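Section: Multi-chain targets

For targets with more than one molecule, the full set of components is provided together so that the structure can be written out for the assembly as a whole rather than chain by chain. Components appear in the order listed by the source. The example entry contains two components.
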Amino acid sequence: MVLEATMICIDNSEWMRNGDYAPSRFQAQADAVNLICGAKTQSNPENTVGVLTMAGKGVRVLVTPTSDLGKILACMHGLEIGGEMNLAAGIQVAQLALKHRQNKKQQQRIIVFAGSPVMHDKKALEMIGKKLKKNSVALDIVNFGEDDEGKTEKLEALLAAVNNNDTSHIVHVPAGPTALSDVLISTPIFTGDGEGGSGFAASAAAAAAGGVSGFEFGVDPNLDPELALALRVSMEEERARQEAAAKQAAEEASKEEKGGEEQDATMTERASEGASEADNKKIEIADDDDTSLQQALAMSMDEPTSSQGLQDTEMSDAAAEDPELALALQLSVQDSTKDSSSQADVSKLLADQSFVSSILASLPGVDPNDPSVKEVLASMQNQSEPQQKQDEDKAPKKEEEK
Amino acid sequence: MACTHDHSCEDHDCSSNWSLYKHIDLSKVTALNEANPGSVKSVFKAWEERLNSSGEHLESNEGDPELLVYIPFTSDVKIKSISVVGGADGTSPSKLRVFINRDGIDFSDAQSMQPVQEWDLVENLQGVLEYQTRYSKFQSVANITLHFPESFGGDTTQIHYIGFKGEATQLKRDVATIVYEITPNPSDHKTRAETGGGLSHVE
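Its structure, encoded as tokens over all components, is:
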């Protein structure tokens, strides 16, 4: 997303009539220019691109750096081929056009399409390169078309003179079946300096590489960005939900044994902290709705099992990976089968005060030295009391569930 | 003009005078023709650190001693004097030309434009020399551009420290938020007399 002003220097010399790049060198160049303009304006909406021709009657600026893609595409129409390319003058005029860009905060970049032979000597090109580097202008060179001796060497020398921290690149495109623009898409000219391709470049690359199915969800993010986004979000949500479910199941499995005491302990805590009227109410409810209460209790105890049943498939998957988890699962399954008698077991465990106090100590927010908790512990010594306490405790639980 | 510090600087707390570096907007400082992009930010530090060149320093490209440094401030400042510590072996800059409140100056502009002020520098490796400005021209500086056209014969120009002495005015050149009232409502503008404040009552 770097803010950039780019000048593209087009070679419209006689050498561009050649057909070794389909359909003609000039047409291939025009396609590449269109793609570059699109990529630049998409990667940052404030980017500007300008175009100039190097051959013909002389170097001519077709459009000064602008972010209006339509203007740029329009000026590519009706260009005539002829004359000889003047690389040095073209680069210097491009530098001048960039100097007078409207937004001085933009980085300056020149992209040169060098299709015809280079007339200048290496020294002159190196001087130009140094001047560009001094004014912190980056240069990208696309070497295609004619390949006479020395051209590659000269262009490499030019690049070496300009290059500052790998911001400038050179690409050699030989003639062949692949179009010029397709070759360019995978180069740093398109993808920027190691930022990772913009969405445009990436999707275009995928399309060029192997058909529409190259996209993540079979939907082109460019054609239908909302759909692609929705698909991606729902995929992530599903993944997160599965993870959460697996985690919850594992927690429930391991806490199933502890769950009974934990719930009771927290219930007792709340009971002791609650106002006296709340206590009275609980006792009333316990007396009146005993049978329905027992039913509600049975259902609530059953709940963990039912939810486990639903998530059996995911849990079995998770269990396969984690032997500890498998053990916990087994225990929980066993536990749920003998849930009806678990109350008696729980009360027996509750009677074991040391066990209970150790559990309480490990619970967050419960201070075993709290007098109310101690009172509760003391009261839990008796066998009959635990049962009554549980009923009272499950009453508030039922209230909460209401 | 020179302030030679062969004493220990405790009597007249030099470092507080050279504190304009705190008002420099470091993220927007740029330099042209620097060998390492970003190294220009290392030359703005406290007075005590001016000789501490263990970190980076600003160096121009090989074979070309010209340097251009653009420094924006976070608020308008008044600059009394400038101090520059260069490098050894002829890599100190020999001239300094400054431009005020102009962005986007490049080398061709700098060479053709008339600077606000220019100085012939001397090799100032200890950082004890300062160059006074024509204060009346440096009254509200939002940004300053320093152009070092040549060095003392070295292949490159090195700069280890640039310091500014002066004061910050707290005035900013930002967009102002102004609230307009079509019909002013007196209840929104209670004076002190109406609210009964400011007077003490003795019961």
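Residues 225-273 of chain A form the longest helix (49 residues).
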